[in-house]
Amino acid sequence: MALLQVRKWYVLRTFSGHEKKVKEHLESEVERLGQQEKLGDIVIPTDTVFEMRGGKKRTREKTSFPGYILIQALIDPYIKEIISGAPSTIGFLGVDGEATPLPPHEVNRILGMMDEDKSEQPEIPFKEGDAVKVVDGPFNTFTGFVEEVYPDKMKVRVMVSIFGRKTPLELDYLQVEHEG
Question: Which CATH code is given to the segment(s) 130-178?
Answer without folding.
Answer: 2.30.30.30
